[in-house]
Write a structure and sequence with these properties.
This protein is mostly beta strands. It has one helix spanning 18-24, and strands spanning 2-5, 8-11, 32-36, 39-41, 56-61. It has one helix and five strands; from the N terminus they run E-E-H-E-E-E. The longest helix is centred in the N-terminal third of the chain and has 7 residues, at 18-24. The protein is globular and about 40 Å long.
């Protein structure tokens, strides 16, 4: 299936969850916020939220500093 990931078209396996996507991308979940189709998805819901054809996913990394 095709989804938009941070503005770029990606081909992904059918039925992939947000949690599985983040694992495939080797991203540390504790420093991320995920938006699916313009709505923020709570971290607790990532394992249950399945991606579908045409979805738009935005992943934001939190960066600390001073």
């Amino acid at each position: 299936m095709r989804v938009q990931l941070n503005g770029e078209t990606k081909e992904l396996a059918e039925g992939l969850s947000l949690e599985e996507l983040l694992a495939q991308l080797n991203l540390a979940p504790e420093r991320l916020a995920v938006e699916l189709n313009r709505e923020v998805v709570r971290r607790a819901d990532w394992p249950r939220v399945k991606l579908s054809e045409g979805d738009r996913v935005e992943i934001v990394h939190f960066v600390g500093g001073g």
